[in-house]
Amino acid sequence: MASNKREQFTAAQQQTAAIAKALGHPARVAIMQLLAQREACVCGELVLALPLSQSTVSQHLKELKAAGLVQGEVDGARVCYCIDVAGWALARQLLGDLLAELPTATAGPTNCC
């Protein structure tokens, strides 16, 4: 019987991959940068600050929210977003651990390909 391949990876590896995937689009990186600069919840200003439609920005926010990097709060007919502090702390830890495990450019193998 076939097993789920995801079960072959640790929870930390799966979380790291989800975070990397969420940050794997330049628009999402830009959204995170804008949210970090404002240090407060942002509603419609994201659409004004990016060269993207409102629906596209909403899709990117949905991906960032699913990865635990942002949180949204309903304020009447609009949703205001800000960085999820706990989620971002976990992302920093997981990505930092991954980067610390990888060799630096000068410490890598010299006989590769």
UniProtKB/TrEMBL annotation:
PROSITE patterns: HTH_ARSR_2
Classification via InterPro entries: ArsR-like_HTH (IPR011991), HTH_ArsR_DNA-bd_dom (IPR001845), HTH_MetalResp_TranReg (IPR051081), WH-like_DNA-bd_sf (IPR036388), WH_DNA-bd_sf (IPR036390)
Keywords: DNA-binding, Transcription, Transcription regulation
Source domain of life: Bacteria
Pfam families, per the entry: HTH_5
Signal peptide: none
Protein name per the record: Transcriptional regulator
Lineage, uppermost ranks: Bacteria, Pseudomonadati, Bacteroidota, Cytophagia, Cytophagales
